[in-house]
Amino acid sequence: MSETTEEATLGLIADIPPGFIHAFVASLSVIVVSELGDKTFFIAAIMAMKHSRLTVFAGAISALGLMTVLSALFGYVATYIPKIYTTYIAALLFFIFGLKMICDGCTMSEDEGEEEFNEVQDTLKRTDEDADVESQTADPAEVQKRSKILNVVRRITFALFSRVFIQSFTMTFLAEWGDRSQLATVILAAAEDVVGVCLGGVLGHALCTGLAVLGGRIVAQKISVRTVTIIGGFVFLIFAMTTLIFE
């Protein structure tokens, strides 16, 4: 690499605002420690065992990316409140989240990850069984009536997206709604650079979801959700302090 290219690269790095870097790192770190061993992680892992990994990943990351952007927008609305208030509120909430994660981690069993994995697996199995029972016991006339109404919508939908994609997207979106990582994204966006929060959050979700679809069962058996939760608690505490420092 020539000196001119090196200087240009260093110049671009130097031009990146510190607030963006802090927001990006904070969002990436918080998402990773929140999502490893979480319900959305295991949904992707279990679905990837039976379906195309790429399709499951695409559906899950689409849902998580959309959720990240929506959460960041919710947080951005709060920026109309004087920044000093949002900064202190964000730091306080991160501090509370951190303490709660540490307390939760200390009370968890060592096989918490495997238990969560099995719970999600049972939920997905019941969902599939309920769908089969409904299709078998439904009144033929009613089914035909509903089919006429929904047939066009279904054809258009499935022409654009596969059933696996839609299931992965829907289940992930619903599981993520109200989750700790969503609330953390809202809080970060209220106090930090919104673009940095979005990019860091999406990358964090992509890393966790990619790990889930590639080896979710192995991760569930090897990873200690208890340890990750405790570490995550300390990460939240660290960013509670850095939020005040970078205020």
UniProtKB/TrEMBL annotation:
Molecular function terms, GO-annotated: calcium ion transmembrane transporter activity; manganese ion transmembrane transporter activity
Keywords: Membrane, Transmembrane, Transmembrane helix
Transmembrane is among the record's keywords: yes
Main location: membrane
Segments crossing the lipid bilayer: 12-33, 54-78, 84-103, 156-174, 194-215, 227-246
GO cellular component, one term: membrane
Native organism: Allacma fusca
Alphabetical list of PANTHER family matching this protein: TRANSMEMBRANE PROTEIN 165, TRANSMEMBRANE PROTEIN HTP-1 RELATED
Record InterPro entries: GDT1-like (IPR001727), GDT1-like_CS (IPR049555)
Domain of life: Eukaryota
An annotated GO BP: Golgi calcium ion transport
Protein family (similarity comment): Belongs to the GDT1 family.
The keyword Methyltransferase appears for this protein: no
Protein localization: Membrane
Membrane topology of this protein: Multi-pass membrane protein
Pfam families in the cross-refs: GDT1
Protein name: GDT1 family protein
